[in-house]
Every structure is written in structure tokens, then in C-alpha cells.
Task: inverse folding
């Protein structure tokens, strides 16, 4: 199940979207204000952000600027009742990939989400089918144990951003810092991958 972060202060709309997108196999983390969204963006890896603009504490555009300044390039769709040219322009300047005006049909949102979230990801000699979990390396299918396979997919899917330890630990059969380091080292050695330990955060492919 793919994970989205929704920043929306309207509980009625948020619950509608959570139910609708959940029926399409998306897991939704709901932030009611900008500060909550900041915290969630550090805790989890998302395939897409859905940000309203007029929300408490930190508006969606300022939040997106902060994330982009921190090299978080997660695809982002702004959903807002602000339809003037200035607001739309500010959204794209901040780094939005798409802008959807309220009110909207959830089916239209679903079409835009599918356009922004890939079923396949590629990095150098790797290609991953996120639906089947099959990994191609140098045009051949590779065989990996579930632990290393899931770690590798997480790293490739989140490139160039780091994957947090909190997200990597559940992928291990016996979670520990040592077990994680050993599996990362084996992946690095087998595929000659440059994987960096981001102190206090997790790991990322360079």
C-alpha cells in the first residue's frame, strides 16, 4: 500500500479523501496543520504530498518551500479554494507539481495522483516494479531475500532523500542497528552502491 501525506484542515473533506483514496490502495496520513505535516514528513517516506494552502500554523506553500529547501523532492499536488493567478503561480514557484482547485471530483484527483506516482522506478541499472516487487538489475531479474529486497526498494523509491531508521527497522526480522548495518553493507557490496549513513536520520543512496 502506497503512502500519502494529506495536509487539510477541513475534517469533512479529509475524511472523504481518506476513505476514497484508501479504497484505491493508498494509505493516508492526515495533518490538520502545517506543523503536524512537518513532523510527519520527517518520520515517514511518502510517494506524494497533498497540501491545502490556508491551514493553521504553517500554510501549505511555506511548508512546501521548506521541504524543497531541505532537498525533499516528493511529488506534491496543491488542493486549494484559492483560484487566482497569483496563488496558483506561488504554488508552482514553491515547487508544486500540480494544482487542483476546490471543489473537485475525487476521481479527477485520483487521475492526477496516478500521473504523479510511478508504478515503476528507475535508478542507474535498477528498475523496480512497485506493484509486483520485481527488481531488474542490468536488465536481469535479481533474487534477494525479503529483508534486503525491501531495504533496497525503500532506498531506491526514496532517492535522493534518506529513509529513516524508523522505517527501515520494521523491514528486519530481528530489528537492531547492527542487523541494519550488516544488510546495508551486503547491498552496497553486491551492487557497488554508494549508500550513506545520514547521522541521526537513516540511510540514503548517493
Result:
Amino acid at each position: 500500500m502506497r503512502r500519502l501525506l494529506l495536509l487539510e484542515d477541513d475534517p469533512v473533506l479529509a475524511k472523504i479523501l481518506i476513505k476514497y483514496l484508501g479504497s484505491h490502495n493508498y494509505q493516508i496520513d492526515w495533518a490538520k496543520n502545517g506543523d503536524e505535516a512537518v513532523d510527519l514528513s520527517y518520520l515517514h517516506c511518502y510517494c506524494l504530498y497533498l497540501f491545502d494552502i490556508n491551514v493553521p500554523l504553517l500554510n501549505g506553500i511555506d511548508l512546501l518551500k521548506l521541504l524543497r529547501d531541505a532537498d525533499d523532492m516528493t511529488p506534491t499536488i496543491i488542493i486549494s479554494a484559492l483560484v487566482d493567478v497569483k496563488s496558483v503561480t506561488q504554488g508552482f514557484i514553491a515547487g508544486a507539481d500540480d494544482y487542483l482547485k476546490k471543489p473537485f471530483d475525487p476521481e479527477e484527483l485520483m487521475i492526477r495522483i496516478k500521473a504523479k506516482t510511478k508504478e515503476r522506478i528507475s535508478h542507474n541499472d535498477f528498475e523496480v516494479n512497485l506493484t509486483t516487487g520485481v527488481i531488474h538489475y542490468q536488465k536481469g531479474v535479481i533474487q534477494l531475500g525479503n529483508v534486503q529486497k525491501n531495504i533496497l526498494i525503500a532506498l531506491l523509491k526514496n532517492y535522493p532523500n534518506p529513509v529513516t531508521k524508523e522505517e527501515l527497522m520494521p523491514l528486519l526480522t530481528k530489528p537492531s542497528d547492527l542487523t541494519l548495518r550488516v544488510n546495508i553493507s551486503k547491498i552496497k557490496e553486491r551492487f557497488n552502491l554508494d549508500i550513506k549513513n545520514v547521522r541521526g536520520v537513516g540511510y540514503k543512496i548517493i
User: Anything to note?
Assistant: The longest helix spans residues 177-191. The chain has a mean pLDDT of 88. The radius of gyration is 18 Å.
